[in-house]
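Predict both folds.
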Amino acid sequence: MASTTRRVDWTFSAYLQRGLFAEWARVATGSGDETIRIWDAETGVMVGEPLMGHNGWVTSVAYSPDGQRVISGSNDHTIRIWDAETGAPVGDPLKGHAVSVLSVAYSPDGRQIISRSFDSTICIWDAETGAPVGDPLEGHTGWVASIAYSPDGQHIISGSFESTTRIWDAETGAPVGDPLDGHVGLVKSVAYSPDGQHIISGSFDRTI
């Protein structure tokens, strides 16, 4: 009997973006097939052609706050910026991480991009030029599992495999206070409350 091989491609990340006054809504997804796809959230129909350029799994995607750009992080160690309307790449890939890029996000004002990686660092990028802003944020001793901006864009939080959460000054990259200890398992996800007064963290120790 002839054998067959079936390729299975995983979808690693999805991001919903709504247009002004909610006139439209689109979803961007990143996949193990090395592409980003944009979908109409109402009909489920793909919009345009797949965005191609990465040479590895696309592990994270995000829209800019104004919906004009899509960013993607990949196992090929790079971040790419795309025109959300045309699907064309904007500028050259952003290079700075030594290994896979696991997550990307825009600052609330859309001026900066942050990325995290298996190299245990967080990088900040100028969203317009693609240039790195300062040195990578270093302090975690384990992989950085999650990153997020505060609502006012003044701080960045990160959760790590070494079971801590850290707060950083988004302008200087300096750590703010001591690491937040409490979990006994890796911190997989972190987020700010809408008013910026509280932080929540979720861990493999099954607690929040």
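Second protein follows, with its predicted structure tokens after the sequence.
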Amino acid sequence: MAKSRSRGTIVEREKGIFTVRVTLGTDLDGKRQTKSITVRGTKKLAQEALAKLITETGSGRGTFSAAAQRWLSIQKHRVGASSWARSEQLLRAIARVAPRLYDAQADTITASDIEQLLIAIKTRGRDMTAGNAVGRKAGLAPRTVKQVAQVVRGVFRLLEKDRLIINNPARLADPVSVETSAARHIEQDDIDRLLSHLTGVNRDVALFAVATGCRRGEILPLTWRDIDLDAGTVIVDKALKRVTSSRWDLGSPKTAAGVRTLALPQFAIERLRAMRLSQGEQWIALMARLPEPGKWYVFPSARDPARHANLKQRSGASKARRQFAPRTLPA
């Protein structure tokens, strides 16, 4: 005789042998999908097994939030620290923008629910995640909308892999259109205006970025060992990666293509020669306690050439980068 308990049933096949079954939902053809296990023992054991099975496929492991945390823990061993931190940030944004979806049973979330989430992120994401930001656009950047979609797909792939859902709504959800601005080329007037706002190491970092197209995280770890002024080249094989707002880790570029040798234009070579000469004169009195000059950073700390400049000192460069970020160097 079958005994129904909420989403599940217990059927005693023969004395002391029970089939415990829960309903997972329906497939695309409307056919009911279930998950069942066999329990040997007493009826009480069967009831406990049913309660556990309901928890695993329902209010416990079967919620989007629980799956998101499991996915995040797996990602920690698959991606770099900065990528993992970004995924965690995006999941927090989903929880704030769509708390009902975040806490819902995964098998109750539909493709249209996901589409509505992405629309909310696109149109009201900043309002809902950063408060009433006066004078700022309410929607988040197109890249952020795409990243949220990637995270949602990753979570639902895990749910599908664990057989906690039959249908994967993320596969059916249509992408949300986002507006992207056309790339603008940097002209000489733009470069002059940028450099006029900067002084000292800030200016040198910006000038090197203009000359090479390197990112800030690739520029600051450069040592003189990476620079060949005679050949006019620089080797880029290190990158600072943001882990939190105040923590950066030094590692390799994210992809093999990030390791490269770049040619330096003449104006950059001349400025680097002047910087090298200046550093040599400035630190010659301290050479007894410093490592060999080749290990000195090209853009050093004000106190020690064996340490790269503090990222917090890059405020001027950061503002300039935000102003000129949409633009690219002319071909």
